[in-house]
Amino acid sequence: MRFAVCVKHAVDESELKIDPSGKPRLEGAQAKMGTFDKNAVEEVLRLRTALGGEVVAITVGKAEARKSLKEALAMGADKGVHILADPGALDPSRTSELLAAAITKTGPFDLVICSEGSSDIYSGLVPPMVAERLGIPYIGYARKLEVAARTVKAERSLEESLESVESSLPSVVSVVSEINEPRYPTLIQIMQASKKPVEELTRQQLGVGDVQASVRIVSMTAQAMNRKRIVFEGSPDEAASKLVDAFASEGVIPK
Length: 255
Hints:
There is one protein chain. This protein is an alpha/beta fold. It contains seven helices and 13 strands. The protein has helices at 37-51, 66-75, 92-106, 126-134, 187-193, 203-206, 236-249, and strands at 2-6, 9-11, 17-18, 24-25, 31-33, 54-61, 79-84, 111-115, 138-148, 151-157, 162-168, 171-175, 198-201. Helix 2 packs across helix 5 and helix 3 (92-106) packs across helix 4 (126-134). The model has no long low-confidence stretch (mean pLDDT 88).
């Protein structure tokens, strides 16, 4: 069985700094494989262990995006596909176009796994768009997967309920972070990843025309978070009592 897993080389949101106007400073920001993408890689590796086959990691980005592919390879993916493109010039629709073209060119695949959304933009639009472009079924926000014969069964995590669904293969599935705990590659696995094959593809090789984003980001601001800076004085018991009263007054705990 052949599996494809889509990963994104995303800005490390935990390292972002905010300028005085409240806008995030992207200059010099570190990037890594998206946090949620690690769950997608982990799940596809677990499926390969159970069913056998091959795992191909696919990403879209500039030269530095190869780092995220290497991380997926170190975790256990068999090979990588790097679609060379400027992510800053793309939107979910254009990204899905490139991914679908690469999946078609390097396929066929029985199952395509994505995360629920990228850890930087988190639109959640790319997985269903990829499925639409490939003309195959889509299951979103899966928290449990079972693949047998030519079907995939999933337990979907909705806002206030769970839903069990089943689809024929091939399919595209996006998974939530609760589905597993991603593994950490060992030093030996990291060293071995550099020997695994990575295929580079351009939009011309994929038969995709000039990709221009149809969505433009007008502005981006960070949510302001101000600490109350309250100091509770007195003995430990007195300070604890004051802290509980403060929580209750803020509605954090019942009065």
